[in-house]
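Figure 6 in text form: structure in, sequence out.
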């Protein structure tokens, strides 16, 4: 059998199908695929204690790797990849750890292709694994909301972000939803582009992967499932359990762009009873001290929305008592850090760190074009578009933000604002483009002058301070207001900015007055920032004060 044909079989699911017979239960074996042919051959051992699920119930394989599991009329049967093993990937580096059981296929009348009829439940559904040890300390690439609305925006992903990720030494990558922007015909090209990174790539379902012709949430992700399998699942790498959640519940009104997390009836941020049952069952097999890393699309809470995820309290109850938790999300096109405690309904121990990631598309691929013809597309909170590098060391988690196309140390932006700039777009007619970056002003302007620093992945525990020349460091105050750089960018570039965009208050903007006692002269301004993970960053500027 050719390698290409084996991959085609795996793309349907990692199941090895025997002749179909009517069956009430799914049965099969998880086995070590010693010859990498995707089939259970004589002498290939079964693997015990691998979790297998139908989307609600979870069972563990026995000493021979065998399992038996009841299935509904339609189901996705999937395994939780155990640590020390890897699952096959298809030609687009998409992990194949599931079997789609949909005898009649997807409902008719949907715009984009769903699942072809799978026929009766096979007699055996087997899952191949290969041994692959991963050290306690490893890295992964996390991206969010690439969200191409046009073929040209797929070009931007290809040219702006992917080249610097090619050949990266990471265990896997993951996209935090809004993989596309409603046009699901782009999945094949998008998958082919991401595959060039060369590592297994997992995916989270967002609100822009839905089939809007679906009658309700049940069949809203038929095209997503066609390419990626179950919309929620888990897998182990090193000492961590990665849990992918689907927290977008479609309301079935045919609305193609619901707009925000609450939706106007289009969708709500919610896990639902079935998924919560699955998570409860899945966690019952996982030791309490393991790192649980949760990935979802809509944040559990965000500064730009008034309401948290609807059943967040139920999730918190399931996670209570686990000391090693971390959660990431996308969706908002802002970068945020939240720490949930008893006041938020999380009983601990400690605080539960929730990180809203920077997006690949930034401000939905908006803004003036750079010399490559790619939009500058800074997010509406002032963060450049980019991605995150996750480092896991045992139960410890840290994140490193990387702005696309910039050096690793580009972690903050410094601007100067004086009274004639203001924070209103109405006065921009009367000052030149880029004047916010001009660090030359008069002694008469000093009383109203301030330094503004946007620490791109900063949060409530970040500390930013500055000094003039070799003087003492002075604290900068964290403020919640729009970054004037973004106010100006959106106001001046309406022709290249998406119609709904406005600059939103940034959760990582820091302000300080320029000292009023500076005399005319030239000064060195040094800014030192300590981020949420204790890393230090620096940026410098030359300040010129002139006479009246």
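Output sequence:
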């Amino acid at each position: 059998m050719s390698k290409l044909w084996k991959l085609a079989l795996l793309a349907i699911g990692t199941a090895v199908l025997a002749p179909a017979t009517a069956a009430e239960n799914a049965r099969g074996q998880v086995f070590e695929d010693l010859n990498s042919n995707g089939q259970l051959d004589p002498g290939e051992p079964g693997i015990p204690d691998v979790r297998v699920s139908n989307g609600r119930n979870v069972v563990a394989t026995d000493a021979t790797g065998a399992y038996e599991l009841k299935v509904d009329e339609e189901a996705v049967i999937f395994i939780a990849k155990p640590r020390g093993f890897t699952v096959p990937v298809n030609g687009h580096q998409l992990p194949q750890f599931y079997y789609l059981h949909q005898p009649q296929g997807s409902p008719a009348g949907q715009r984009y292709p769903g699942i072809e009829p799978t026929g009766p439940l096979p007699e055996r559904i087997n899952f191949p694994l290969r041994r692959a040890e991963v050290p306690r300390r490893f890295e992964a690439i996390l991206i969010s909301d690439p969200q191409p609305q046009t073929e040209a925006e797929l070009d931007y992903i290809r040219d702006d972000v992917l080249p610097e990720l090619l050949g990266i030494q990471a265990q896997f990558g993951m996209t935090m939803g809004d993989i596309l922007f409603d046009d699901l015909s782009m999945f094949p090209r998008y998958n082919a582009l991401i595959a060039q990174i060369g590592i297994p790539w997992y995916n989270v379902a967002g609100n822009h992967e839905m089939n809007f012709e679906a009658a309700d949430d049940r069949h809203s992700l038929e095209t997503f499932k066609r390419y990626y399998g179950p919309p929620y699942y888990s897998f182990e790498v090193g000492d961590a359990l990665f849990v992918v959640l689907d927290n977008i519940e479609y309301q079935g009104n045919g609305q193609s762009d619901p707009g925000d997390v609450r939706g106007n009836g289009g969708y709500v941020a919610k896990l639902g009873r079935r998924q919560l049952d699955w998570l409860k069952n899945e966690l019952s097999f996982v030791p309490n001290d393991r790192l649980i890393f949760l990935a979802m699309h809509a944040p559990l809470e965000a500064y730009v929305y008034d309401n948290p995820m609807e059943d967040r309290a139920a999730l918190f109850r399931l996670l209570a008592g686990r000391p090693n938790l971390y959660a990431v999300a996308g969706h908002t096109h802002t970068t945020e850090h939240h720490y949930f405690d008893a006041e938020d309904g999380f009983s601990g121990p400690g605080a539960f760190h929730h990180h809203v990631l920077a997006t690949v598309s930034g401000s939905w691929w908006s803004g003036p074009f750079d010399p490559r013809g790619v939009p500058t597309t800074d997010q509406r909170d002032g963060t450049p578009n980019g991605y995150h590098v996750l480092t896991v060391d045992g139960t410890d988690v840290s994140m490193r933000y990387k702005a696309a196309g910039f050096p690793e140390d580009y972690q903050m932006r410094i601007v100067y604002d004086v009274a004639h700039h203001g924070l209103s777009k109405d006065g921009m007619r009367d000052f030149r483009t880029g004047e916010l970056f001009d660090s030359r002003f008069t002694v008469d302007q000093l009383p109203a002058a301030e330094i503004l620093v946007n620490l791109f992945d900063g949060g409530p525990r970040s500390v930013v301070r500055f000094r003039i020349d070799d003087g003492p460091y002075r604290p900068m105050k964290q403020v919640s207001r729009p970054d004037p750089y973004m106010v100006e960018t959106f106001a001046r570039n309406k022709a290249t900015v998406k119609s709904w965009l406005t600059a939103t208050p940034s959760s990582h903007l820091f302000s300080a007055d320029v000292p009023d006692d500076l005399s005319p002269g030239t000064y060195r301004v040094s800014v030192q920032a300590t981020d949420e993970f204790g890393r230090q960053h620096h940026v410098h500027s030359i300040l010129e004060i002139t006479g009246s």
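Caption detail: The longest helix spans residues 273-283.
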